[in-house]
Amino acid sequence: MSALLDIRNLSVALKGGPRLLRSVSLAVAAGEVRGLVGESGAGKSMIGKALLGILPRSVEVVDGQILLDGDDLLRLPPAERRRRIGQRAALIPQDPLTALNPAHRVGPQITDRLVDILRWPRARAEARALDLLAEVHIPDPGRVMKSYPHELSGGMRQRVLIASAFAAEPALIVADEPTTALDVTVQKQILRLIAEMQARHHTALLFVTHDLGVVSKVCQNLSVLYAGKVVEDTTVRDFFRAPGHPYSAALLAATPKYTDPDGSLTPVPEAVIAAVRAEVEAAETEWQHGRR
Amino acid sequence: MLDGRGAIRRRAGARLWLSGGWLLLLVTVALFAPLVAPQDPLAQDLMSGRLPPFWSAQAEPGFWLGTDSLGRDVLSRVIWGARVALTVACIAGPLTALIGGALGLIAGFYRGWADRIISRLVDIWMAFPPVLFSILLIAVLGTGLTSIILAIVVIDWTRFARVVRAEAMNQGAMDYVAAAQVAGFSRLRTMTAEILPNVLPTLVALLSLEMGISVIVEAILSFVNLSLSTDAPTWGGMIAEGRTSIHQAWWVLAFPLVALFLTVLSFSQFGEGLKDRFDPVLR
User: What is the pLDDT of residues B27-63, one digit of tens each?
Assistant: First the structure.
């Protein structure tokens, strides 16, 4: 099977420091929706950032491959890599409040990349932006195009960002906790909207989240990440029926249930954490040895 | 929330109009100094030295703000002095902003070795006492308008570099910068089209402040006689002269001082007012 995105043994480390991602492998097929779950600090977002070439400056890829359409992004010259990512991938960011530039109107923020990077005629880009804004259920798209971001609510901004992500018909969209910064009532709408847009455009989606409820609603497959390592790679159905890894099972047990509002929260048992940690540390030691 | 914004806008409005009004008046009289000034600023008349301002009984018609010890008209000299002050402010200010702003933007956005070099330079610069540094520079460059302007630019670029660097770093951490990178825009384009517009309100406020500071620096240098030739009308020079006769003729010192004070205050308030008015986040 030739995947759209194929990440092989990707290791990312603090410059001169420990690894944050430890030989992560995961693949996303065209049109697939894959959830990427794990607790804070597990490295979920780091995978998306490495893939899109926006790793923070203090962090570097030390090993592995990121194949997009079969070409290793890490081996491409920077300009070519940037072009490839801009054409084939897009990002729905976490915080809609800072993801739109406050100094520019909304319209150009959607159309500029179509015109400047993909060389679309401006009229076509504008028509496209209007269509997409209507598609994400924004009333009066013409007015929103002329608005500054601060004139829009958080939910509206996230809609704009979703429209913008789909604008160039990318093959792959990374959604980095797209609902975390939003109001609970808006979260659900946005989630439904992302699912709807994905289904209409058949875009592959890498959905980074810590919310298993979200995963169950949106994703087909998922990768569970702990301490920078993929501990389980499965379909959503199998995961909820019978999680394969003890950490996954504990994670699932720790999710609060709507059906049992009075039930106490179950933390991930110490023993499970210790076991996973030991596993990860063994791998890390081995890796350090291999490096020397 | 709406009320808060309204209050900010009203306050900004008053301060913008007052400071802008004074600056406009100053620019006008400076531009048309030969027409506006009632007397020749250099004409001496020892017989009518130290005439008091117009409201005093001993005042002479035509010398509205009195005369100095050499009988030169104070009002005319303040007006011609505005020319020097504004020339320095209008050239030194933007030039400093341009150089310091560009270096700060590069340091704050690109980080890495560029940032290390620029930041160390700023540290070194800040270790010099600015007034002594400028006097030293003038001593090397020689007196004159160009030297003053050069001295201000060479000394004060760090002010812009520091603030703009910090602001660019703030903006650089925003998601919209990451979004631009993902979209495929180059680093340079991201810096100029994404970061710069967001740094601009700060830069403009700082520029206005810097123009005020340039006026002060020019006054300091002419006070210690390192500006233009001795009898050229400059506010600093007038203050220095007035100091010697403050007990007999306070007005020689007071009027240029008031002009200096109002001008510097107006520049800083004008900048703040503009920032409040045009900052897209506040607006």
Answer: 999 999 899 888 888 888 888 888 888 888 888 888 8
- Give a yes or no: residue B38 inside a domain: yes
CA distance B133 to B137: 6
Going from the N-terminus, what domains does chain A have, and what CATH number goes with each? 5-248 (3.40.50.300)
Beta-bridged to residue A35, according to DSSP, are A207, A222
Domain membership of residue B108 (yes or no) is yes
CB atoms within 10 A of CB B187: 14
Q: Suggest the residue from B176, B186, B194, B204 to mutate for an interface test with chain A (most A CBs closer than 10 A).
A: B176
A113 and B194 in contact by Cβ < 8 A? no
Q: How far apart are the first and last CA of chain B?
A: 12
| A106: closest chain B residue by CA | B176
Read off the pLDDT of residues B137-167 as tens digits, 9 standing for 90 and up. 888 888 888 999 999 999 999 999 999 999 9
| Reported ipTM exceeds the 0.95 cut | no
Contact B183 A98 (CB under 8 A): no
Q: Work out whether strand A172-176 and strand A89-92 pair parallel, antiparallel, or are unpaired.
A: parallel
- Residue A117 in contact with partner chain B when CB distance is under 8 A: yes
CA distances from B136 to B133, B168, B254 (A): 5, 33, 29
In a domain, B283, yes or no: no
Q: What are phi and psi of A173, to 5 degrees?
A: -120, 130
User: What CATH number is given to the structural domain containing B137?
Assistant: 1.10.3720.10
pTM for this prediction:
0.84
Rounded alpha-carbon distances, angstroms, from residue A242 to A220, A238, A254, B173: 15, 6, 15, 40
Query: What would the two tokens of residue A268 be?
Result: 């991930």
Sorting pLDDT into bands at 50, 70 and 90, what band is A10? Answer: very high
Select the more confidently predicted residue: A278 or A219: A219
Q: Are B185 and B149 in contact (CB under 8 A)?
A: no
B281 interface with A at CB cutoff 8 Å: yes
> Is the Cβ pair A117, B174 closer than 8 Å?
no
> Nearest residue on chain A to B181, judged by CA atoms?
A54
- Looking at the structure of chain B, the number of domains it has is 1
Range of the domain at B96: 2-278
pLDDT of residue A258: 63
Residue A97's closest chain B neighbor by CA?
B175
